[in-house]
Amino acid sequence: MDNLRYIKYKGGYKYQLVEDYKCKTNICPLVNIHTEYISLTISGWLTIRSGYAFDGPSGPAIDTKNFMRGSLVHDAFYQLMREEKLQQKWRIPADKELQRVCREDGMSLIRSTWVYLAVKFFGGSNASKKNERKVQKAP
Q1: Does 59 fall in a domain?
Q2: What is the crossing angle of helices 91-104 and 109-122, to 10°?
Q3: 46 forms bridges with which residues in the sheet?
Q4: Could you list the residue range(s) of the whole structural domain that residue 121 is in?
Q5: Would the pLDDT of 116 be above 90?
Q6: What separation in angstroms does the CA of 35 have from each of 58, 109, 118?
Q7: Angle CA(27)–CA(114)–CA(15) in degrees, nearest 5?
Q8: Does residue 104 sit within a domain?
């Protein structure tokens, strides 16, 4: 009956996917990965299911339309790494996927290169299990 007295939640999210999203990526794990909201096949097909919460572009970045899809894909990859379902060796390829998707969506080469370098040099801790979002309780 404790669940009637408080809620459990995780913070740090700004957006929620309202339809499933599927795309082909260059990230190909040795085994298929399936979680409640994310699936990644050995052939690189990434599926992110409706209801997935993500924080969009991080840091000083501006949440523009040509950044949203890339940030969704990147957040999903980093979450799989934090949960130790995807090996850390995929971090830089995941950063390159962010840049590739942003370029597909019309982001300039200069901005997409800045985005890539920012996550490459400053985003590594976000893929670490140590940075997993903690469950909080209220009240």
Answers
A1: yes
A2: 160
A3: 23, 40
A4: 10-126
A5: yes
A6: 23, 33, 28
A7: 65
A8: yes
DSSP bridge pairs for 137: 8
With respect to residue 32, please indicate whether it lies within any of the assigned structural domains: yes
Average pLDDT over residues 7-12: 79
CA distance 107 to 98: 11
State the Cα–Cα distance between residues 68 and 82, nearest whole angstrom: 21
Say whether pTM exceeds 0.85.
yes
pLDDT at 1: 52
The one-letter code for the residue type at 83 is E
| Count of the separate structural domains present in the chain | 1
**Mean pLDDT taken over the chain:** 91
Cβ-contact 102, 67 below 8 angstroms: yes
Alpha helices, DSSP H, located in 44-138: 65-82, 91-104, 109-122
Which sign, positive or negative, has the C-alpha torsion 110, 113, 115, 118? negative
Q: How far apart are CA 65 and CA 28, in angstroms?
A: 27
